[in-house]
UniProtKB/TrEMBL annotation, chain A:
InterPro entries: FAD-dep_OxRdtase, FAD/NAD-bd_sf. It holds the Pfam family DAO. This is FAD dependent oxidoreductase domain-containing protein. Keywords: Membrane, Transmembrane, Transmembrane helix. The chain crosses the membrane at residues 63-82. Residues 65-448 form the FAD dependent oxidoreductase domain. Coiled coil: none annotated.
From TrEMBL, chain B:
Belongs to the ATP synthase subunit s family. This is ATP synthase subunit s-like protein. InterPro entries: LRR_dom_sf (IPR032675). The lineage of its organism: Eukaryota, Metazoa, Ecdysozoa, Arthropoda, Hexapoda.
Length: 479, 287
């Protein structure tokens, strides 16, 4: 009888010694293989990403491929384009931004004007691409992306002295694909009855792709787009570049040994200093580019390095005012006077914003961001009241200030590689029209780095080399 | 390994005697002000065209130097580094249904844009008016010419009666793009029409503010009637740009009471153009 029991128990005990783990649910091996393959395909299990595919790793990046100094519109756009043109893991890109609130960023100052009315073909093409980018912004950043483009046109006025130049510029712009039209005095008066045209000779009215948009939205979208594609933003300030002598590098125009840099020091907000080793560095620090360039010995060295980056901080004001009575109606494009004063409608209830660049001798100091209302009363208001009689009684109700990245050499952007360093690129000095050119500049720099040369718009003439051969690229008759 | 010759100073660089650190005030060169003209007259008038790409290349490329040349292998070297090919090779293959769906939608969109893009040959053979008519009627719209009472529209076999070569005197009066899938790039085909007075985009879902910007420029000289009903992408900012249509008399909109800014824009538009009357379909309130 015991034997019989033993026989019955035998298979029971046997099961306790098999390799089946009782704490796990059994999974069919074929289904399990399919599950793992499916997860691989759906990219769920990639390291360092959350379920939306965004980068979650927030470890400080000590080794990166490309470091971008400055995370404003230009820097974010470069990061976005570099990431867009490569796949997720191909390049490790870090953007160093001093102030993530963007309080001192030039974008705060921008009134978001979109125009193709420049005199340099490069600028016209960059702005045309900017308009194209804004139009197709939903393809880049998803269906919710919106920059509130207001297609109300852009009117540039010229006095008798500047009339000829304005007509020449308009011809060039139309050749390159912009749409604008020269209006004479009577046509201006007929179209814009609110305007006093007594001292205006001609005006150039942008008909398509001109107007204004919300620069903050564009900055936010570019930044979000870049970080969604895997760019890491670091809150900190570049305080030092570390140099190494490279005896094996031979370069034209370099006296003595080439000293390159592959290492920079970032000061974090809590005072820590950390190193970042990079393969390429992009200088897009806006109004502070000049100082950052000095850290990289641009302007303090010998030979090519004795040419400084001529980008300075310049304080500019924007004022908003409310017009009582009969304000210029809906037929008010963004208007630039021949004195350089500009204004545009802000909302529909008679609110306007305006601004103007001061003369060289009255540059305000850049120590703080205080707004000088006297400047409005003394300089802007007389022009404003003369141009638009309805603005006779206006007062600046509010004003804000910000810094332009002003290029003291020729007031145009410097885009391209630095001739001395093999791995340093510059994209700064846009002197007030940076925001609409940001998409094109980002694309251009990404082409330089990834494709080795400009592919779409040839910006060679706007490179740093123009400072070395002393060939300035001025805008003529453009403010 | 690449140490071929001793470091040398660029001869061209020193010969040109480039002026380092000479940052001039821009105003020195440009004659902006008539008062300054007398002073600047001595200097040549500045022209950006005189600055060429070649000026920027102040270093002689290595292979152009004396005693240097490209080896024969250069024949097989290409300047194009095939970045996009590399990118597609590196991108992991994603076969999830949603990504295939996205890819297909994107592909269809590209095909649509390509098929609607402007063809210079079409306009050279047919002239602007007939080319626009062909473009519209082929895609399901209707057109009407001056001195003709009937609308031309494709029948159920997608056949229609339009001249196949340029004919004089055919001038478009009205274009009906109702329920067409017309995109921004397609609007380029409607440029330079002489006297279009009647235009309807009723039910075109792809018409947005950028399209309005284009339309308001292209037809600014002639358009009298414009129908923008059932275009959900149009906002008050786009409607505001219609001030450029100076002859517009009737404008059909969806429901101009949908927001305060929208209504305000409509009122301002009527104020700027006294002949304009903005109409909309009677609003049905759901109970």
């Amino acid at each position: 009888m015991f034997r019989r029991y033993a026989l019955q128990l035998k298979p029971l005990t046997k099961t306790f010694h098999t390799s089946i783990k009782l704490h796990e649910e059994f999974e069919n091996p074929i289904l399990r293989t399919i599950r793992i393959l499916r997860d691989d395909i759906m990219l769920r299990n990639r390291p360092g990403r959350d379920e939306h595919g965004r980068l979650v790793s927030r470890v400080f990046p000590h080794y990166v491929d490309i470091v971008i100094i400055g995370g404003g519109a230009i820097g974010s756009s470069i990061a976005y384009w570099l990431k867009k043109k490569t796949n997720f893991d191909a390049l490790r890109i870090v953007v160093i931004e001093k102030d993530p609130t963007y309080r001192k960023c030039s974008t705060t100052l921008s009134v978001g004007g979109l125009r193709q009315q420049f005199s340099l073909p490069e600028n016209i093409q960059m702005s045309l691409y900017g308009a194209e980018f804004l139009r197709t912004i939903k393809k880049h950043f998803g269906k919710e992306a919106e920059v509130n483009f207001t297609p109300h046109g852009y009117l540039v006025l010229a006095s008798e002295a500047g009339a000829e130049q304005l007509i020449d510029n308009s011809k060039l712009q139309n050749e390159l694909g912009a749409m604008n039209r020269i209006l004479n005095k009577d046509q201006l008066k007929e179209r814009f009855p609110w305007m006093n045209v007594s001292d205006v000779d001609v005006g150039c009215l942008g008909l398509e792709k001109e107007g204004w948009f919300d620069p903050w939205s564009l900055l936010g979208l570019l930044r979000r787009g870049a970080s969604d594609l895997g760019t890491q933003y670091v809150h900190g300030e570049v305080v030092e570049f570390l140099f190494t002598e490279m005896n094996d590098v031979i370069m034209d125009g370099v006296e003595g040994c080439y000293e390159g840099t592959n290492n920079l020091v970032v000061k974090l907000p809590d005072g820590q200093r950390k190193n970042i080793q990079f393969a390429a560095c992009i200088l897009a620090a806006g109004s502070e580019s000049g100082e950052v360039a000095q850290l990289a010995r641009i302007g303090t060295g010998r030979g090519m390095l004795s040419v400084p980056l001529p980008v300075e901080k310049r304080k500019r004001y924007v004022y908003s005012f409310q017009c009582q009575g009969e304000p210029p109606g809906i037929n008010t494009p963004m208007t630039i006077d021949h004195t350089g004063m500009y204004f545009r409608r802000d909302g529909l209830g008679g609110g306007f914003i305006c601004g103007m660049s001061p003369e060289a001798h009255e540059e305000p100091s850049c120590d703080n961001l205080d707004v000088d209302y006297k400047f409005f009363d003394d300089r802007i208001w007389p022009i404003l009241a003369k141009r638009v009689p309805a603005f006779e009684a206006v007062k600046a109700s509010r004003g804000w200030s910000g810094y332009y990245d002003y290029n003291t050499y020729d007031e145009n952007g410097i885009i391209g590689p630095h001739p001395y360093y093999q791995n340093m690129y510059i994209a700064t000095g846009f002197s007030g029209h940076g925001i609409q050119q940001a998409p094109a500049v980002g694309r251009a720099i990404s082409e330089l780095i990834l494709d080795g040369r400009f592919q779409t718009i040839d910006l060679t003439r706007l490179g740093f080399d123009r400072l070395i051969v002393d060939k300035p690229m001025y805008e003529i008759g453009i403010y | 390994m690449f140490k071929l010759r001793l470091p040398q100073i660029c001869t061209k660089f020193t010969a040109q005697q480039c002026r380092f650190c000479t940052i001039k005030e821009p105003k020195e060169l440009i004659a902006k002000d008539p008062k300054e003209k007398d002073v600047v007259e001595v200097q040549e008038k500045y022209d950006p065209k005189k600055v060429t790409k070649e000026d920027m290349q102040w270093r002689t490329p290595w292979h152009q130097k004396e005693g240097q040349y490209y080896s024969l292998l250069r024949t097989f070297y290409t300047e194009d580094n095939k970045r996009s090919l590399l990118q597609s090779l590196q991108t992991p293959i994603d076969l999830s249904p949603s990504s295939i769906k996205n890819w297909w939608a994107k592909h269809k969109e590209q095909v649509e844009i390509l098929s609607q893009s402007y063809l210079p040959e079409r306009n050279q053979v047919l002239g602007n008016e007939l080319a626009a008519a062909h473009f519209i009627v082929y895609r399901g719209g209707a057109v009407k010419f001056f001195n003709q009472d009937k609308w031309i529209k494709a029948d159920e076999n997608e056949e229609y009666d339009l001249p196949r070569f340029y004919e004089e005197g055919k001038i478009l009066e009205a274009i009906d793009c109702a329920d067409m899938n017309i995109v921004y790039e397609g609007l380029e085909n409607l440029r330079n029409l002489k006297k279009v007075q009647w235009l309807s985009f009723n039910g075109c879902e792809r018409i947005d503010d950028w399209c309005i910007d284009k339309i308001s420029n292209m037809f600014s000289h002639s358009l009298v009637y414009l129908d923008l009903r059932n275009c959900p992408c149009i906002t008050d900012r786009g409607i505001g740009a219609l001030y450029k249509l100076r002859k517009l008399k009737i404008l059909y909109l969806d429901d101009f009471l949908r927001s305060t800014t929208y209504e305000m824009t409509c009122l301002l538009l009527e104020e700027a153009n006294p002949h304009l009357e903005i109409r909309s379909d009677p609003v049905v309130f759901e109970t």
